[in-house]
Amino acid sequence: MTRFTRRTALALPIAIPAAASAQEWRPGQQARIVVPAAPGGTTDIMARLLGQFLQARWGTPVVVENRSGGGGTIGTMEVVRAAADGRHMLMGNIGPQAIGYSLFRNLQYRPDSLAPVANVIRGPNVLVVHPSVPARTVPEFVTWLKQQDGRASYGTSGLGQSPHLSGVWFNQLTGTRSEAVHFRGAGPLLIDLVAGNVQFAYDNLTTAIEHIRGGRLRPLGVTSADRSPQLPDLPALRETMPELAPYDVSTWFGLFVPAGVAPEIVRSINADVQALLGAPDTQARFAQMGGVPAPGSAADFAAFVRAETTKWGEVIRREGLQMDAT
C-alpha cells in the first residue's frame, strides 16, 4: 500500500473541472490561507491542497501561512483581525472553532467573529502507542495506564484540540490518569511520539496513518462511533470496553473568513471548495489519508459548527475543564 505523506499529497495532480463556477468572484491579487498549527498536520495539509487548487483556479497566488500556538487561537486571531475582503482565509478545525469557546476563559474572539465558508474533510482520531508500550488491545492499555499511575504521557497537537480532549474523556471514562504534553501541531507531536519521547497519542487518523502503515506506531482503536473504512480491522474504542460505550469523537477541518465578508464572496469561495471536493482524485486522496470529503453549503457548515460548539461545551462543563489561552 502506498504511504501517504505531505510531500506526495502536494505532488499529486489536482483535477480542475473545466466548467467555471456559477459564482465568478476572484480576489484579483494575492490571497492567503492561515494555518493555526505547525506544518505537517492535517490542518496544514488541507490548507496547502486547497491553496494549490485555488491558485490554479483563480490565476492569482494563494500563500499558506503557519501561525501556531495557543491551541489554534493565535492563528485564528490573525484572520479575525484581517480585512473582510475574501483574501484572508483560515483553515480552521474542531479545536479553536468549536472546543475553544467553552475551554478557554480569555478568548479574544467569539463564534460570530468568523464566517464559516465550507467544511473540507472529516475523520476520526486514532489511539496510537509507541512500540515500547506493551499493550496490544485497549483493555491491556487501560491496565498498563493504571500501573503507570499517572506517569505515562500522551502528546497532543495543541491545548484544547480534539486529540487533547479525546485523552481527557478517555481517562474520565476508564478511571485512568496520564499527563498531556502539548505540541504546536501534529507534525512536531509525531516526531516526538515516533522517537519515544511521549508514549501515546489520540492523533488525527489523517496524519497518523502513514506511521501506522509504516509500523512506526501501533494503533489500538479509532475514536469515532464506527470503524474506519481505511482500517476496517481496527476496532472503534467504544467496542472494546463497556466503560467506553459512550465514546465518540470525530474531527473536522474547514474554511473560515473574517465576519463581514460579503455573502456573495462566501458563496463563491464555497463553490470553489465544492469543485475541489467533487474531484475524483480528491476523494481518492482523502481515502488514503483516512478521511472523507465533507461537502455542503456555507449555511450547512455554519449549522454544523454551532452543533459542534454546543456538544463540546456540554462535555467540557461536565468535566469541569477551564484554562487560559496562551
Automatic annotation (TrEMBL):
Gene3D superfamilies named among the record's database cross-references: Bordetella uptake gene, domain 1, Periplasmic binding protein-like II
Positions in coiled-coil regions: none
Similarity comment: family membership: Belongs to the UPF0065 (bug) family.
Signal peptide: 1-22
Keyword Transferase applies: no
Domain of life: Bacteria
Classification lineage: Bacteria, Pseudomonadati, Pseudomonadota, Alphaproteobacteria, Acetobacterales
Keywords: Signal
Protein name (record): C4-dicarboxylate ABC transporter
InterPro entries listed in its UniProt record: BUG, Bug_dom1
Organism of origin: Roseomonas fluvialis
